[in-house]
Specification:
It contains eleven helices and nine strands. A six-stranded antiparallel β-sheet has the order 1-7-2-5-8-9, with helices on one face. Helix 8 packs across helix 11.
C-alpha cells in the first residue's frame, strides 16, 4: 500500500510518539524517509525481501519507497496481555535539504546513510543509546530545532558502528559504492558473474593481486570474505526469485549458482533462519 503522509508544507518533518495495543499498519511504503524507535515491543520487522526480529530499544531507518511492515509478537494481540507498543516515529521528506546533502562534502556521511537506507537499517539496543535519546527529543522541539536536530541525528546514525543493513542488495537496484576504483571494478564484476563459479584466482587476477593479498584487501574494503560476499549475493538473488517468481526451489537453486539444492537449503536457512519454502510461505502470508 502506498501511504500518503500528511507532512505540512511549512515543515518537512513529522515527528510523534505512538502508543498502540500492537502494530497494525499493513505492508506499505511511502516516499518519505522514516525513523522508527521501538521503546516497548518485540516481534518481527518485514523489510523489502527480509524478515528481522526486533526488540525493545531498537531503531529502524526505512528509505524512500522501501516496503516495510512491523508485526508485533502474537502475545500483544491477546486480550489477556497488558503489553503495549510504544515508541517514536520521525518521518521526513525525500527532498529534505536535497541539494546540500547531494553536493556538499560535509554531508557525505549522511548521503551514504540515506543511500543505504534503501535497504533498511537496524540500529540495535543498547549500542545506540545516544541515538535513542536524540530521536525521543525531536517531537518535543519547535520546527526549526527539529530541522537542526534531525541533521545531527542523521550524522550520529551515519557514524554508528553498530548497525545492520536488512534487505538484500538485489532488492535495492543500485549498490552504492564510493571511493576506491579498484574495489568498484571488483564488485561490478562480481555483481555480473556471481551466479556462475568464480574462482579466487580469477577475481584476484582481475585486481592484479595474488590470492592472499586479494583476500586481505577484499575483507578490509567490504567487511566480508570473498566467499561470504558471493554467498550473500546468491542468497539475495534467491530471496528475490522466491518473492517474484513461480520457479521451484530446485530451479532457483540452480539459477543462483548453488552446487546442489541441499547446499542451497543449508546456506539459505543459515542466512535467513528459514528454509526457502518457509520463507516463501511466510512472505506470501
Amino acid at each position: 500500500m502506498n501511504e500518503k503522509l500528511s507532512i505540512i508544507q511549512s515543515n518537512p518533518i513529522k515527528a510523534r510518539f505512538y502508543d498502540y495495543e500492537h502494530f497494525f499498519y499493513p505492508w506499505h511504503f511511502h516516499h518519505e524517509y522514516e525513523i522508527l524507535f521501538v521503546k516497548e515491543s518485540f516481534g518481527q520487522c518485514y523489510v523489502g525481501d527480509t524478515i528481522e526480529k526486533y526488540y525493545t530499544g531498537d531503531i529502524f531507518l526505512f528509505g524512500s519507497a522501501l516496503p516495510h511492515y512491523m508485526s508485533s509478537d502474537p502475545v500483544f494481540k491477546t486480550r489477556e496481555t497488558s503489553f503495549l507498543v510504544k515508541g517514536t516515529i520521525v518521518q521526513f521528506e525525500k527532498e529534505f535539504m536535497n541539494y546540500s546533502i547531494g553536493h556538499y562534502p560535509q554531508f557525505l556521511a549522511i548521503r551514504r546513510l540515506l543511500e543505504e537506507s534503501g535497504r533498511g537499517i537496524c540500529f540495535p539496543w543498547p549500542a545506540n543509546r545516544e541515538i535513542v535519546k536524540m530521536v525521543e527529543e525531536i517531537p518535543l522541539l519547535p520546527s526549526l530545532e527539529q530541522l537542526t536536530s534531525l541533521l545531527l541525528l542523521l550524522q550520529k546514525m551515519a557514524r554508528s558502528k553498530s548497525r545492520k543493513l536488512l534487505a538484500s542488495p538485489h532488492f535495492y537496484d543500485t549498490l552504492c559504492i564510493h571511493g576506491n576504483t579498484k574495489i568498484e571494478k571488483i564488485l561490478s564484476y562480481l555483481n555480473k558473474h556471481y551466479t556462475r563459479p568464480v574462482s579466487l584466482e580469477e577475481i584476484a587476477s582481475l585486481a592484479a593481486m595474488n590470492p592472499t593479498a586479494f583476500c586481505r584487501y577484499f575483507k578490509e574494503k567490504t567487511g566480508r570474505t570473498f566467499k561470504q560476499y558471493v554467498i550473500e549475493m546468491r542468497i539475495g538473488y534467491a530471496r528475490k526469485l522466491l518473492l517474484t517468481n513461480d520457479l521451484t526451489i530446485s530451479q532457483i537453486s540452480a539459477e543462483c549458482g548453488f552446487e546442489s539444492i541441499t547446499h542451497f537449503n543449508r546456506l539459505f536457512k543459515r542466512s535467513c533462519n528459514l528454509t526457502p519454502s518457509e520463507y516463501r510461505e511466510k512472505m506470501d502470508a
